Amino acid sequence: MNNNSIFAASAFELSGNHFGAAAGLIRSEFEPDTVLVALIGAKTLKGDPVGFMEGVFGPSISVGGSLGLTVTDDDTGNSSEMLCAGFGFQFSVFPTIAIGADVSNLRIYGDSLQERVIGYGFSTVFDRSFRGHFTVTNGKSALGFDLKVKDWLTVRTGSDGSSWNTGFSFEHDWFKLDWAVILNDHDCRQVLGISVSPGGYL
After folding, report:
1. Which of 155, 190, 195 is nearest to 172 (CA)?
2. Exposure of 76 by Cβ count < 10 A (0-12 exposed, 13-18 middle, 19+ buried)?
3. Chain centroid to CA 70
4. What tens-digit pLDDT sequence spans the chain (202 residues)?
5. DSSP-assigned beta bridge partners for residue 106
């Protein structure tokens, strides 16, 4: 099966709150084409979660929510849509551990195009350069690590038992480039992402 997809997102800060918007298009050879649009908001109730992940000790508490629209269109002209919501939180009450949970794809209106997703996990900061992550999504666990080699270079790797991925992030001032390769029993895929943050919000 040949799938081609492209995604774009933006984020900004307003009155101490964080907002974002994302859109994507998935073109499939045998499945219906899919368009996804989402609006996201997050609020830090206490502390600095970004500073925590950079090695600054907590505590911090953050909550967030999302509203998404999924539209599919097949070769026969049949279309379906689903409006859904999601919620999540993260808190770090321990010196170097952040714990979070989220639920997404809660159907509000339309067809049931995606199943509900429940996830939880934690991240730990070994030092300012090395971090580990463990997540469970709908009962499936995954483990990953980030290593900051230089101020401008971070390498990543992880696995959920059925697939393995590795990649890197190159960051300079307001520009960030992410690349990863994902390998499983059936295929090998590449993912490329470009982030531009002239306002310093991403």
Report:
1. 195
2. exposed
3. 17
4. 556 788 988 888 888 889 999 999 998 877 888 999 999 999 988 877 666 555 555 578 899 999 999 999 877 778 899 999 999 999 887 667 889 999 999 999 999 888 999 999 999 888 878 999 999 999 999 999 999 999 999 999 999 999 999 999 999 888 999 999 999 988 898 999 988 876 554 4
5. 85
Residue with tokens 């995604």: 7
Kindly state the helix (H) or strand (E) to which residue 22 belongs, with its residue range. strand 17-28
Handedness of CA 28, 34, 39, 43 (dihedral sign): negative
* Residue 165 near residue 181, CB atoms below 8 Å: yes
> Is cis: bond before 32, omega within 30 of 0?
no
Per DSSP, 54 falls in state: T
| Pairwise CA distance, residues 74 & 33, whole Å | 6
Whole-model pTM?
0.80
- Paired tokens of 28: 């499939």
- H-only helix segments in 16-81: 49-53
